[in-house]
Structures are given as C-alpha cells and as structure tokens.
Amino acid sequence: MKxxxxxxxxxxxxxxxNWLNSMGSEGWRLVQVKQSFYTFETCKPGEFIYKxxxxxxxxxxxxxxxxxxxxxLGIRHFSQGLNIGKFAIGNKRWRPYGKGATSFASLPxxxxxxxxxxxxxxxxxxxxxxxERGEEIKYYSKMRNAFxxxxxxxxxxxxxxxxxxxxLIAEIYRSGVVDWRIIFKIIIIVLLMxxxxxxxTFTRKIRHIKQEGNLYE
Length: 217
Hints:
Pfam families: DUF2812. By secondary structure, the protein is an alpha+beta fold.
C-alpha cells in the first residue's frame, strides 16, 4: 500500500527529520520525495529511521562520492532542494557559505540537491552522521551561516523597500487605511521569525557540543 503526502516545512531539517521518523514509527517508509510531495509505502513500524544533512557546500563530485559511500553502508538517500542563503540569476546560483567551486551551482549540478534525506534500517545502532565533535560544530556553523544570510536579506528587504516602516506607519495612522505595503512588511516579519528561531537553535546546539567536549576533556 502506498500513499502520497503534501507537506511544507518552515524548518526543513529538524522538523522534517522528526516528521519522517514519526511516519516511520507508524509503519510508513519513504520511497520518493519531490520537493513538498512525499510518497510512502507500508513497512513494519519503526523498521527504518531517517537523518537529513545539508550538503549544498559540496561539489557534485564530492556529493556523488558521499552518496556512493552511503550506499556501501546500506543507507538509502534522497535529494531535496532548499533555497536559502543564495543568490540566483537564471540557472546560476551563488552560495556565499560554500568554498571555492562549491560556492557556485548550475544545471545540471547540485541545484535542488541541497538536502540529503538518508534512510537506515533500525538495527538498534544510533544513526550518527558525524564521528567527531569538531565536524559536528563545523556542520552546524555552516547551517547557521546559510540561515543568517537569508535572515539578513529579509531584514534588508524590510528596511530598504519603499516606503520606510516609519513613514508607512505614520501614513496609516493619518489616513486610517491599511496599505498593501504594510501587509508586505508583515509577511517579511512572519518569514523572518522562523529563520531567527533556527539560527538560535543552531547556536544553542554548537554551544551544547562545545560544553560536552569540555566535560570529556
């Protein structure tokens, strides 16, 4: 038996990962993902567990090598797009958080492959992506940078777009009419809030990992 689900996540990593594991615990195994459309088939409850990794800073060659490595470990994977913290012109994208050639992406390439959804059979062994704390700190720092860039862009859009928030509020106060531009500003604020929350979450995780490292040293 199969079923298809449409699902949108504000936090495409942690929230999506928790949801996929929740589906797995209910006996649904992921078989296909196309952006916000997920196809599942029935399985034993808890038979599979999922992890999601941000891989937008990897070159296509690095990503393919990593996928081959996961395949050797018996881990299935699905690619998914995540358009945050990047600038695009046509089919070219610049990712400021990348390094060297990985800062740029084009079709065909690792566009729409920014996330890697990984599936592992639940054999009782913890599903860990990183073996060292240093690698984990670098990963979450990279994620925080990507979301920070997106947050900065939204903030700049809020303050630079005409009219300014202050003059717009004054105009509404005088006329008593809600301008569509204030709705646009409100939408930006609504979009900005989850980005700020995610940045805080990654900062807290980095701090927690560092504190754990100090405890074991």
